[in-house]
Amino acid sequence: MPKEKKNVWEMTLERLDATMDALSIKPGMQKYLRQPRKTTEVSVPIKTDAGTIEIFKGYRVHHNTNRGPAKGGVRYHPDVTLDEIKALAMLMTWKCSLVGLPFGGAKGGVVADPTKLSANELEHITRRYTFEIIDMIGPEKDIPAPDVGTNAQVMAWILDTYSMDKGHAVPGVVTGKPISLGGSQGREDATSRGCVYCILSTLKVMGIDSTDMDVAVQGFGNVGGNAAKILHDLGFKIIAISDVSGCLYNKGGLDPFDIDAHLKKEKTLAGYKEAEILNREDIFSLKCDILLPAALENQITEANAASIKARIVAEGANAPTTPDADAILKENKIFVIPDVLANAGGVTVSYFEWVQGNLSYFWTKREVNLKLRDIMEKAFYETYKFSLENKVDMRQAASMLAVSRVAEATGLRGIYP
Is residue 251 annotated as part of the catalytic site, yes or no? Predict the structure, then answer.
């Protein structure tokens, strides 16, 4: 009988249960940490450009807010589900805890394909979605940010809708907004830069004093695209880049800046002349030093994990690896930088933006990047030290550190009333 496929929520709970058992967390606390604090589903009706009425489904989930206000992105994607949003909200809780941010986890989403909607329709969806969840969000309780399918412009619409409701400007309601509206320098490439800092730290602990390494990047959106550019500038060789349209491969190296220009013009990787075009799944079987999955969840599975030949997997995406695949990567002695660590750069600079907005005092890009490096390196070495001392892999180490801190905060606060 084939194994029943689990969704990302079930896999996230499975990992949490294993972590809580390893920490000997009491049953009552285990029940508490498994459950989202608040789950909201809303209808998002809009009038389309054609004059028809369409109804979209939206979600916002708060997982745990015992360490601070909820923090998490909003994604627009046709495959958004409540279970996915719950899982991502929980991962945000652990991510903020691991890097020491005073936030809890949240996530939001709308079931929509932004590539098939006009700018006018996207604005209407955003404003109506914001109106429907307006009681959940705010600078002191839940601060949304960009995610898959959203960007600084979407954050500007959320900011404006919320501010109009309150009767005054509230720039702290979102992060990842345009610089001219109080956004932070360095926010756009923060997730990618944080991932690169983790890769550089990994090379140090592995005793590798070189950037002459082959890198394959799965997903060429904001995270994958910027990571490829940063690594390219540091001297790494980007040999493969994939997105939904296929995989570009050139053993001699690719120029991610040139590919980005091609993609903006053609809207597809197809037709790029400086590379061989492969199927997008082929990226997982290419020989390389570093594989950087930066797309959606559940991309590295039991079906393709054994074919991965990389020495390092740096998870730029959220939950890109299934538990079954994890076991295969571990058996093959592949060093995995887990998602809650590798992609925490985005929420870290979102925290910086929130702080700058509260102080009305803004930092230079250099200051932002140096502060980001300090936090990412500290979190990496804490996790690595824990993994060595407790003889667990990096994912288990990151999970145990993050969950233990949230459990401690929850226990100290107690349960009201």
Answer: no
